[in-house]
Amino acid sequence: MSSTAGQVIRCKAAVAWEAGKPLVMEEVEVAPPQAMEVRVKILFTALCHTDVYFWEAKGQTPLFPRIFGHEAGGIVESVGTGVTDLKPGDHVLPVFTGECKECRHCKSEESNMCDLLRINTDRGVMLNDGKSRFSIKGKPIYHFVGTSTFQ
Length: 151
What we know:
Blueprint: E1 9-16, E2 24-30, E3 38-45, H1 49-55, E4 66-67, E5 72-79, E6 91-92, H2 104-107, E7 134-136, E8 139-141
Antiparallel strand pairs: 1-2, 1-4, 2-7, 3-5, 5-6, 7-8
């Protein structure tokens, strides 16, 4: 795997420009991961009814343009500062429910619903800085549950 750490990369992604409209394959710029973030080269992804539900903008505040997808497998391409559990080349499954490892849920053996990193379908940006890591010609493309695996 070539070293693209710290650089903007380009990849193809299925972008939803509007609710319910066909996805469009686009070349997307992907910013480097920031502190405690991981950039993953997606090798396999799948369509889930949850993606379709939000793509059709049912039951939530529509946020477009957006890259959907939350079920995938891939390889770590690069990591941000502070990431110690993963390294480039590791095989991973992106998970939309992160773990801070400190809250009562993360320390529990019965729950994985982190107080800090709960599922938020309306956010569309990263927690660290409130920005998207995806863009097309400078225009932000929003995330979906922190994974956006349709790329």
